[in-house]
Design goal:
mainly alpha
Length: 160
């Protein structure tokens, strides 16, 4: 891969992200095994919460205003979490590393470098939202009454 291309910058950003993750997890098998166990425990806990919230309510979902309000509120809450996490990540990526002056003064096009960083931020935000949504989707798919939830408005006929 030629230096200065978008792929080269992406590979470099992936290396930096892996180095940062290794620094957080620490060196050694015991730390990594503990992190993997903690991640599995968190995933199991999230599935239990989703089971408690979603499984009993599957037969009662319908186009009632209370249900639609709840779903809209939860979607808005998830969206707010996604936006706040992306803003914090963007601030950290551009200012906490302290290399913004180096990027802007380097002979490589700053546009490519910043596009790769923004792509990484968007990818991290998407992974975070997928981690939060996937337990509910998994419980919904695994339910015995796994018919799709269709929200429709009643048809009104107008007599002339």
């Amino acid at each position: 891969m030629r230096p200065g291309t978008t792929g080269w910058f992406a590979r470099h950003e992936i290396r930096l992200a892996l180095r940062d993750a290794a620094g957080v997890l620490g060196r050694g098998r015991l730390r990594r095994a503990g992190a993997a166990f903690g991640l599995a425990l968190f995933a199991g806990f999230m599935h239990l919460v989703a089971y408690g919230l979603v499984f009993d309510q599957l037969d009662h979902l319908g186009p009632e205003p209370a249900t639609l309000t709840l779903i809209t509120g939860l979607a808005f809450l998830s969206w707010c979490l996604l936006v706040s996490q992306a803003m914090e990540s963007a601030t950290r990526a551009f200012y906490a590393r302290g290399d913004l002056d180096l990027i802007l003064s380097s002979p490589a096009p700053a546009r490519r470098r910043l596009a790769v960083r923004l792509g990484g931020i968007a990818g991290a935000a998407a992974v975070m939202s997928a981690l939060l949504v996937s337990p509910g989707a998994a419980v919904r798919i695994a339910s015995p009454s796994a018919s799709p939830v269709v929200v429709s408005t009643p048809r009104r006929t107008v007599a002339a």
